[in-house]
Design brief:
The complex is a heterodimer.
Chain A lengths: L2 H9 L3 H9 L13 E3 L6 H10 L4 H15 L23 E3 L14 H9 L4 H7 L15 E7 L2 E5 L2 H6 L3 E4 H7 L1 H7 L10 H9 L4 E5 L8 E7 L10 E6 L4 E9 L6 E4 L2 E6 L4 E8 L11 E12 L5 E8 L4 E4 L2 E4 L5 E10 L4 E10 L5 E10 L4 E10 L7 E10 L5 E10 L5 E10 L2 H8 L5 H12 L1 H4 L4 H14 L6
Chain B lengths: L16 E10 L4 E11 L4 E5 L6 H9 L4 E10 L2 E2 L5 H6 L2 E4 L6 E5 H15 L7 H14 L4 H5 L1 E2 L5 H15 L3 E5 L7 H14 L5 E6 L3 H5 L4 E6 L2 E6 L2 H9 L2 H7 L1
Parallel strand pairs in B: 3-10, 3-11, 6-9, 9-10
Antiparallel strand pairs in B: 1-2, 1-4, 4-5, 7-8, 11-12
Helix pairs in contact in B: 6-7
Classes of the chains: A alpha/beta, B alpha/beta.
Family (chain A): Belongs to the iron-sulfur cluster assembly SufBD family.
Protein name (chain A): Fe-S cluster assembly protein SufB
InterPro entries (chain A): Fe-S_cluster_assembly_SufBD, SUF_FeS_clus_asmbl_SufB, SUF_FeS_clus_asmbl_SufBD_core, SUF_FeS_clus_asmbl_SufBD_sf, SufBD_N
């Protein structure tokens, strides 16, 4: 990619965005794939937890860990403090495990792979070689490399269906595999770190996840290693009435570096689907982790029917000195978003950053933000949140910044901007700030604005139609956050911003 | 690499811009601003409109480019025979109409270059032409920016944000040069310009003069017309054209003010 293209993309709306806006009728990833699935019976019980554990061929200690979580979950109540309105979720009316039948026997070549599975990946834009690897074709790793160098772990409903570039990563000492494989192959790492950032009993949804998580990704970057390529997980919910509970665990050992991307899609369904994921990141001395998400779950239709209920717990623990973590998220999908990627700044001089774009259109509701827990001395955190509301959507930023007594000379800067499109939507900002020492400094800036008629007319008088004009202005509003994303994601995010706001004007 | 033009001009008989008996009121206040304005501009000509404050000059430019908030109660406005008033603002732009704003609008976070490229490609697409590649676009924009002494740094900055008055107006002319419209309306482009900026802007406009492009220059002062020589000068008052003449009319206004001219017209 040359510098010129780079510049163009970073400056705002790309040509592709404009095309996408014009070509897209509605939710781009709304197809579903008719693949023969294997389901566990509906509902949740100890037997289901045992079945999931057994399907993943887990050792006894893992099953015990799950059961402990399940028993704990039975005593807990769903949190109600968020500014979200949704009907009661019936946890017994869900499937907790589904996986494509074709995964039971590994295919030998592309011809043997269920063509529908391949078509799914093609629609997701994953290059062919990676498609082969994801579909589990033997020898695909030896095929000549093409396209971009991003290692992908694809999670289809509950199951990780393949991980690319594994051998190459292994040469650098990086472990990148599904979490079920990690539990079997690297139990010492999993035992040491699983639940160490988000404990089993952390909150209702995290505890549910601890009991029933079916798969997810695992990353370990050893001491002093800079991961040679970007790592990526693609989550897709396909099966109907199936909850997805993936679990991601990332460990960056001393001096390590890794950049991790997460993408999500789901088909259009009339019914709501539950997604309750947990992401745990452990960052040791001088290590750095960048975690970027483009969340594009189905948001429901324009009347608010269907869509994903997204209750996610993401937390990073900067456990040792000078550890650094950066969360970047672009939240455009889901009917309900409940998500607060957080940083525990335990090590002295550790740093946490959070960059967020949250778009809510039609009847979407988003309650999202971050927590910056300053425990170590001279710790730094930065929060940049851009909330966009359109249609009848409600968008809440909820953030917590705490400076503990020991966290002397620490700093936080928070910038929280809301943009309203139309007159039926809402933007809310709920910052909690606690400072328990006298040498730390916390800054909070917040703005709320509307998309300006003069700006739209100016753009239109230069030839852009109304939707192009809105996309341009909104992309400008989000610029600081888009710039924090890796290249491939920045492009995708820009088009998503445009698509998500379709029909929001006029 | 040239940016292709809108369709070729019609025969000499037809006027490029034709405004007939235009009546316009403000939607919110029910206040009549234009009261039977008529004007014809043939291809290749530069017409100036001068007039005292509140005569409706800016309203005319907004109504022609399609801004919300105005209601046309009577009359018509056509560009190459097509009715402008039935078109959306972006359709008017694609048809070849351009308005250089008196107060160019700021768009935070959107790079000037991105804005230009989005606009150029939107118009090309509307006309069924292929979009410009990044490379081709950059070549053209850099050359045209250099002529207007617009630095590469200014091309990267967000649209009009933190621009000086002169930079904003030069930026409008750069957009005009990139979009290559057939009918350019300039709404008090000279306001807030110092002598050097005025010369740059005028040179930019003069370089764009051609047999199939027309200009409507709205101004308070004769000063700008020393640099951009008009073919015809109109005096506007109270929502209508009250007098039309050659360049000498502008000089007369400069020396005598509007008083006598308006009295004469009554």
């Amino acid at each position: 990619m040359n510098a010129t293209i780079d510049l163009d993309v970073r400056e705002g709306v790309d040509r592709e965005t404009v095309e996408t806006v014009q070509n897209m009728g509605s939710y781009k990833y709304g197809w579903d794939t008719e693949i023969e699935m294997e389901y566990a019976p509906k509902g949740l019980s100890e037997d289901i937890v045992r079945l999931i554990s057994q399907k993943n061929e887990e050792p006894e200690w893992m099953l015990e860990w799950r059961l402990e979580a399940y028993r704990r979950w039975l005593t807990m109540a769903e949190p109600k403090w968020a500014m979200l309105n949704y009907p009661e979720i019936d946890y017994q009316d869900q499937y907790y495990y589904a996986r494509p039948k074709s995964m039971e026997v590994k295919p030998k070549s592309l011809d043997e792979v269920d063509p529908k599975l391949l078509a799914t990946y093609e629609k997701l834009g994953i290059p062919l070689k990676e498609q082969m690897i994801l579909a589990g074709v033997e020898g695909a790793e030896d095929a000549p490399a093409e396209g971009r160098r991003v290692a992908v772990d694809a999670v289809f409903d509950s199951v990780s269906v393949g991980t690319t570039f594994k051998d190459e990563l292994a040469k650098a000492g990086v472990i990148f595999c599904s979490i079920s494989e990690a539990i079997r192959e690297h139990p010492e790492l999993v035992k040491k770190y699983l639940g160490s950032v988000v404990p089993q009993s952390d909150n209702f949804f995290a505890t549910l996840n601890s009991a029933v998580f079916s798969d997810g990704s695992f990353v370990y970057v050893p001491k002093g290693v800079k991961c040679p390529m970007e790592l990526s997980t693609y989550f897709r919910i396909n099966a109907e009435n199936t909850g997805q509970f993936e679990r991601t665990l990332i460990i960056a050992d001393k001096g390590a570096y890794v950049s991790y991307l997460e993408g999500c899609t789901a088909p259009k369904r009339d019914t709501n689907q539950l997604h309750a994921a947990v992401v745990e990141i452990v960052v040791l001395e001088d290590a750095e982790v960048k975690y970027s998400t483009v969340q594009n779950w189905f948001p429901g239709d324009e009347n608010g029917k269907g869509g994903i209920y997204n209750f996610v717990t993401k937390r990073a623990d900067c456990r040792e000195a000078r550890a650094k973590v950066m969360w970047t998220q672009v939240e455009t999908g889901s009917a309900i978003t409940w998500k607060y990627p957080s940083c525990i700044l335990r090590g002295d001089e550790s740093q946490g950053e959070f960059y967020s774009i949250a778009i809510a259109n039609n009847f979407q509701q988003a309650d999202t933000g971050t927590k910056m827990i300053h425990l170590g001395r001279n710790t730094r955190s930065r929060i940049v949140s851009k909330g966009i509301s359109a249609g009848q959507a409600q968008n809440t930023y909820r953030g917590l910044v705490t400076m503990h007594p020991r966290a002397t000379n620490s700093r936080n800067y928070t910038q929280c901007d809301s943009l309203l499109i139309g007159d039926k939507c809402g933007a809310h900002t709920v910052p909690y700030i606690e400072v328990k020492n006298t040498s730390s400094r916390v800054e909070h800036e917040a703005t709320t604005s509307k998309v300006d008629d003069d700006q739209l007319f100016y753009c239109r008088s230069r030839g852009m139609d109304e939707e192009e004009a809105v996309a341009l202005v909104v992309n400008g509003f989000c610029r600081e956050v888009l710039q924090a994303l890796p290249m491939e994601f920045a492009m995708e995010a820009q088009s998503l911003v445009a698509i998500s706001l379709e029909g929001s004007v006029g | 690499m040239m940016v292709p033009q809108a369709p070729p001009p019609p025969s000499d008989e037809e006027k490029m811009l034709k405004i007939d008996n235009l009546h316009v009121k403000l939607e919110e206040e029910d206040k009549q601003i234009l009261k039977g304005l008529s004007l014809e501009i043939p291809a290749g000509q530069v017409h100036a409109i001068m007039g005292p404050n509140g005569s409706g000059k800016s309203t005319l430019s907004y109504v022609l480019s399609g801004r919300d908030g105005y209601e046309v109660t009577e009359g018509s406005a056509t560009l190459d025979g097509e009715s402008l008033l039935d078109m959306e603002p972006e359709e008017r732009a694609a048809a070849g109409l351009f308005l250089a704003f008196q107060y160019p609008v700021e768009i935070p976070g959107v790079g000037n270059m991105t804005f230009l490229r989005t606009a150029v490609n939107a118009q090309r697409k509307a006309r069924g032409e292929e979009e410009l590649s990044s490379g081709d676009f950059l070549k053209v924009v850099r050359a045209k920016a250099a002529e207007l002494q617009i630095s590469p740094e200014m091309l990267k900055r967000p649209v009009n944000v933190g621009f000086s008055g002169g930079e904003k107006k030069r930026n409008e002319i750069l957009q005009m040069a990139m979009l290559e419209p057939r009918m350019c309306i300039m709404d008090e482009t000279d306001s807030g310009l110092d002598v050097d900026a005025m010369r740059l802007v005028s040179d930019g406009v003069n370089a764009l003069r051609s047999p199939d492009r027309s200009f409507l220059v709205i101004t308070h002062y004769q000063r700008l017309l020393n640099h951009i020589q008009p073919d015809v000068v109109h005096i506007m008052a109270n929502g209508r054209i009250v007098k039309t003449g050659g360049p000498e009319l502008a000089l007369q206004v400069e020396e005598e003010g509007y008083g006598d001219l308006l009295a004469e017209a009554r």
